[in-house]
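Exercise 7. Given the encoded structure of a 669-residue chain, write a plausible sequence.
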């Protein structure tokens, strides 16, 4: 029989069969939109990242249904065929984005090739989540060009796809009817994982490992961030997948429409409404990490880790319950054409949007403006549509080769030559970029380089307190009275009679040493650290530290006062890494009451910027005799040249000079 005359036999409908449910694509659309908004600027939708949790629940539900349907239909689960279907669905677009990024990075950002190499290898093997945990490139870390950081969620799903079919093959050995016990086991695992996560999460300040070691686990000499591990690991994020899997065993669309729930569409719509409200509240309420104004530090959102993920999963399950019911209004609303279009392309939209964001913003952690977001979304939609139409769908259907042959037969000579040249160019560029990625040196990013160079010009606190110059003070003991008729010890082996006309002066007696003050002392965080070499060259003693908070520096200032370190002026730049309060500022300035103090405001796209700057400006307006505030946020706009790193906060070469000159204009040094 020829291919054109062959008719495929329709598949037998079973109780676990998976009909097409447009509402699930609509739910996917809402999830991917939330994620893209969050990735553009977290302040727009603080919990938008929970769209990934919605994806997990949907994946667990559909994959489990498909495996159960296959077991009922064929009497077995064909693991090889399952994994091949997953590969054809996921790999083409993934490889396309990795190849495109390799080429772009080779051409436009070659200094980042060494760091991108690790992300490419981890992405290829679907272990991005574990790689990011190990190297400390967590979900909220910033400063790097990180175009593949979003692959962590695909890694979690792919690891699930690798293991779950094997588990299901064991569970379904006796058929698909008896699933009560497996469901209880799944819910039990969800409860245990949630309990362990609740206990393990660190609710206090999160800084550098040396500053807040309690926020990390240690493996040898490596610090592993607790928040990142709990957020990224496959084990702790399995709860959504397991909730979806348990729902699939209890709520099969075909079975639902054959049972007593067939006429309860309105009830399910009400439940789905509660679920959608819950998802909206979660997206508005939860954060991953947040600047805590009370704690004056960056902290993890403990509510997220202590039930937030599970509540999001349960809300998603509530919506799925209605979507899977063919008579529900929810399914029709979520299956509307605009949402359907977005949902069917949600994988491509998720896969392509983050690299496009990164190319526009330069480094992770920098928010997009509204204009940049609109441009990024337009570009993402175009790329995702092209990928869906010309790459993903043909490969999934197995007709890519046929489409290419048809194009070659029907297209004119000109378009064929253009296509051939374009294909050849892509191959050549791919090979070149592959070699460049493989052989590139691992270079520090511009912020890390600035901090490393600045660290060589920093004076440690122990040096300030123990090794500062001191002035020895001595007092000579008076000579003995020659008329007193006394004998005085002049030396260990000599006695002088008082009646002798010869007199001897005793050696001096040492008194408490007096420390010589440091004329110009500069205390700050990583922003000041960038300018440390210039400040040190101009006579400043610089003590700057990455991730430093003002609150943590108060005891340090008291120690410096007690050691009489303060000299002609103290320059302070703190507040980049979190909130500080008026009380903290009072405590910080109290030891400095007898010395001129110059403080700089905060620059950058930071949630606490305006709060901290307002406090400093208000204190400056009180006309304290010893305090001068430099409005760094405003003055920095006048810097010309290469002033700032990609995050818009840390100093580049011209910015370092401009920064030091502003301080010189006030201190004269």
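Solution.
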């Amino acid at each position: 029989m020829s291919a054109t005359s062959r008719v495929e036999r329709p598949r037998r409908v079973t109780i676990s069969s998976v009909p097409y449910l447009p509402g699930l694509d609509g739910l996917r659309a809402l999830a991917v939109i939330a994620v893209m908004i969050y990735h553009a600027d977290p302040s727009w939708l603080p919990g938008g990242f929970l769209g990934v949790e919605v994806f997990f629940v949907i994946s667990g539900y559909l994959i489990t249904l498909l495996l159960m349907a296959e077991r009922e239909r064929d009497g077995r689960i064909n693991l090889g065929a399952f994994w091949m279907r997953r590969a054809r669905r996921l790999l083409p677009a993934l490889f396309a984005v990795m190849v495109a990024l390799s080429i772009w990075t080779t051409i436009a950002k070659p200094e980042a090739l060494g760091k991108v190499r690790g992300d490419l290898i981890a992405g290829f093997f679907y272990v991005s989540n574990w790689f990011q945990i190990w190297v400390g490139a967590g979900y909220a870390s910033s400063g790097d060009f990180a175009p593949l950081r979003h692959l962590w969620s695909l890694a979690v799903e792919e690891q699930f796809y690798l293991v779950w079919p094997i588990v299901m093959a064991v569970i379904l050995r006796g058929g698909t009817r008896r699933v009560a016990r497996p469901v209880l086991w799944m819910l039990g695992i969800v409860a245990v994982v949630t309990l362990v996560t609740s206990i393990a999460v660190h609710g206090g300040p999160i800084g550098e490992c040396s500053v807040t070691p309690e926020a990390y686990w240690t493996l040898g000499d490596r610090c592993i961030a607790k928040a990142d591990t709990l957020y990224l690991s496959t084990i702790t994020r399995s709860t959504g997948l397991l909730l979806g899997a348990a729902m699939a065993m209890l709520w099969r669309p075909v079975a639902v429409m054959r049972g007593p729930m067939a006429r309860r569409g309105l009830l399910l719509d009400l439940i789905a409404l509660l679920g959608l409200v819950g998802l909206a509240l979660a997206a508005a309420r939860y954060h991953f990490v947040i600047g805590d104004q009370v704690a004056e530090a960056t902290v993890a959102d403990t509510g997220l880790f202590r039930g937030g993920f599970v509540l999001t999963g349960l809300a998603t399950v509530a919506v799925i319950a209605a979507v899977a019911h063919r008579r529900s209004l929810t399914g029709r609303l979520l299956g509307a054409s605009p949402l359907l279009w977005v949902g069917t392309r949600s994988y491509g939209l998720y896969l392509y949007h983050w690299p496009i964001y990164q190319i526009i913003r330069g480094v992770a952690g920098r928010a997009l403006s509204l204009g940049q977001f609109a441009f990024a979304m337009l570009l993402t939609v175009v790329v995702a549509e092209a990928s869906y139409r010309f790459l993903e769908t043909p490969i999934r259907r197995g007709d890519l080769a046929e489409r290419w042959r048809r194009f070659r037969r029907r297209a004119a000579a000109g378009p064929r030559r253009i296509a051939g040249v374009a294909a050849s160019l892509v191959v050549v560029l791919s090979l070149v970029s592959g070699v460049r990625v493989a052989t590139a040196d691992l270079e520090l990013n511009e912020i890390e380089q600035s901090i490393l160079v600045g660290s060589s010009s920093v004076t440690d606190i122990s040096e300030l307190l123990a090794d500062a110059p001191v002035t020895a003070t001595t007092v000579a003991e008076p000579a003995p009275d020659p008329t007193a008729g006394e004998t005085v010890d002049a030396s260990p082996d000599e006695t002088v009679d008082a009646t002798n006309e010869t007199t001897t002066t005793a050696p001096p007696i040492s008194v408490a040493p007096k420390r010589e003050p440091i004329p110009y002392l500069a205390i700050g965080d990583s922003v000041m650290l960038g300018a440390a070499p210039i400040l040190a060259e101009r006579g400043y003693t610089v003590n700057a530290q990455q991730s430093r908070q003002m609150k943590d520096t108060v005891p340090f200032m008291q120690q410096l006062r007690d050691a009489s370190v303060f000299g002609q002026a103290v320059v302070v730049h703190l507040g980049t890494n979190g909130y500080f309060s008026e009380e903290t500022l009072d405590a910080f300035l109290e030891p400095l009451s007898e010395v001129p103090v110059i403080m700089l405001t905060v620059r950058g796209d930071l949630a606490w910027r305006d709060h901290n700057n307002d406090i400093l400006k208000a204190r400056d307006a009180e006309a304290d005799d010893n305090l001068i505030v430099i409005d760094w946020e405003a003055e920095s706009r006048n810097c010309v040249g290469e002033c700032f790193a990609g995050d818009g906060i840390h100093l580049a070469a011209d910015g370092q000079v401009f920064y030091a000159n502003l301080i010189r204009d006030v201190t004269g040094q």
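Remark. The longest strand covers residues 566-573. Students should compare their own answers with the one above.
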